[in-house]
Specification:
Blueprint: H1 2-42, H2 46-52, H3 65-100, H4 108-135, H5 148-161, H6 165-174, H7 177-184, H8 188-212, H9 214-217, H10 222-237, H11 244-263
């Protein structure tokens, strides 16, 4: 009877966490779909409309940073939530298992908060980058790279990073969630937050250049946002023998080189 009760509680915890993650994901993607629809209809993202009230051509004021930051934060939640969901569910299971053995219970919510705190900081940096690039006329009114050369360089940089030792080390960490929990476990709310923060740092280091590709293809390009989200998850769960990172690196390098070459004027 006791064993059945324990299993029922553990199953309930996983369901609660699963439904919470699903709810956050749905809300984030609905927001992105709304913003993309608005942008497609008007040619102006909500953040620009709030600041300049018209065509997205003039330099943005510093006040535009807040809505830009909120937009990027929503995008990062929508894109990275699928990739971190397996680890969050595993964390919940391990936390409940430890509590059943009389050890302090660690809330999954604090782990998730630590993880997305890092991506929130990244969103601030991305918003600043977008504000600067827009002011320097390196982004078009459609929020894409203003020239093929700029976009091509972004793609080649992301492709080259796929072969770097840092990428390999970060991806090894992200592919071994159970090992991470067993070696870096910390009790308490602060401990859970710090665990999430550490994993978020590694995850951000693993994916930040891929996220920057949105500057090349369009910050509000819903198709690319979805593709990058799927790819971030695939890198973590695909068998190593698929060499997904290396194959994608070659594709990104070739596509970037093509963009640069195609942008050169014909002599």
């Amino acid at each position: 009877m006791l064993e059945n009760t324990i299993q029922a509680v553990a199953q309930r915890d996983r369901l609660v966490v699963g439904f919470a993650l699903a709810g956050i994901a749905v809300a984030s993607w609905l927001y992105l779909a709304h913003e993309a629809e608005r942008f497609a209809a008007t040619g102006v993202c909500q953040c620009a409309a709030m600041m300049i009230g018209g065509a997205d051509l003039a330099p943005w004021s510093p006040q535009a940073l807040l809505p830009l930051f909120l937009m990027w934060t929503e995008m990062m939640v929508a894109m990275m939530l699928p990739a971190v969901t397996p680890l969050v569910l595993l964390f919940s299971k391990v936390a409940r298992s430890r509590a059943e053995r009389g050890q302090p219970y660690t809330s999954t919510a604090f782990f998730g908060a630590g993880y997305f705190a890092v991506w929130t900081l990244f969103s601030l940096v991305a918003a600043l980058a977008q504000w600067i690039l827009h002011g320097a006329a390196l982004l078009s009114p459609q929020m894409t790279a203003s020239t093929g050369i700029v976009g091509g360089v972004m793609f080649m940089a992301a492709g080259a990073f796929q072969f770097s030792p840092l990428k390999k080390a970060c991806l090894t960490h992200c592919r071994s969630p159970l090992a991470f929990l067993m070696t870096d476990w910390r009790d308490g709310r602060i401990g859970a937050f710090l665990m999430g923060w550490k994993h978020g740092l590694v995850c951000t280091a693993c994916c930040w250049l891929l996220m920057m590709l949105l500057f090349a293809v369009g910050v509000m390009n819903l198709l690319w946002i979805g593709l990058l989200a799927i790819f971030a998850l695939s890198e973590r769960i695909a068998p190593r023998k698929w060499h997904l990172s290396q194959i994608s690196g070659v594709i990104l390098l070739c596509f970037g080189a093509w963009l640069v070459f195609a942008a050169k004027p014909v002599s």
